[in-house]
Design a protein that fits this description.
Helix content: 40-55%
Strand order of the largest sheet: 1-2-4-3
CATH topology: NADH Oxidase
Order of helices and strands: HEHHEHEHEH
Distance between the termini: 44 Å
Number of domains: 1
CATH architecture: 3-Layer(aba) Sandwich
Oligomer: single chain
Strand content: 15-25%
Largest sheet: 4 strands, antiparallel
């Protein structure tokens, strides 16, 4: 994968909003095949993770958020920060013509072993590369099923 595209993905993640602008997350980028395969194994053998040229692992930095926000910061805000950053990275990747998928099904302790930190909580992995196939769009719920409140109804 082109280094310029990867840098743009990093920049997008860095611009993600965060609680108190603390950016209470850390992102690990793995291009090494052994590490990517270890991540695939930690994700219950989701082999496409190892096949992608890059895998980003977004981790919540609980302590960083707890310094300002206490328990709510460590339990919620840091997780939200990592999630928003991952979302920004995902959108940037797709905008650059790359393919990615959100991976949340993994053994946290095994991912921590790969990243080399027990103090960070892995939240999501994004394997990134060029699509091998063009998947069909998945079915989505109707907007009216999701949104509620005082808003104009559409016809």
């Amino acid at each position: 994968m082109e280094e310029t595209k990867l840098k743009r993905i990093f920049e997008a993640a860095n611009l993600a909003p965060s609680a108190g602008n603390l950016q209470a997350y850390k992102v690990f980028a793995f291009t090494d095949a052994l590490k990517r395969n270890a991540l695939a194994s930690a994700a219950f053998d989701q082999q496409f993770i190892g096949q992608a040229p890059v895998c980003l692992v977004f981790c919540a930095d609980l302590a960083r958020s707890a310094e300002r926000y206490g328990q709510r910061g460590s339990e919620l805000y840091s997780v939200q920060d990592a999630t928003i950053a991952a979302s920004f990275a995902m959108l940037a990747a797709v905008d650059l013509g790359l393919a990615t998928v959100w991976v949340g099904d993994f053994d946290e302790s095994r991912v921590q072993a790969v990243i080399g930190s027990e103090s960070l909580r892995p939240i999501a992995m994004l394997p990134i590369g060029y699509a091998a196939e063009e998947p069909k769009p998945s079915a989505r719920r109707a907007i009216e099923e999701i949104f509620a409140g005082d808003f104009p109804q559409t016809d």
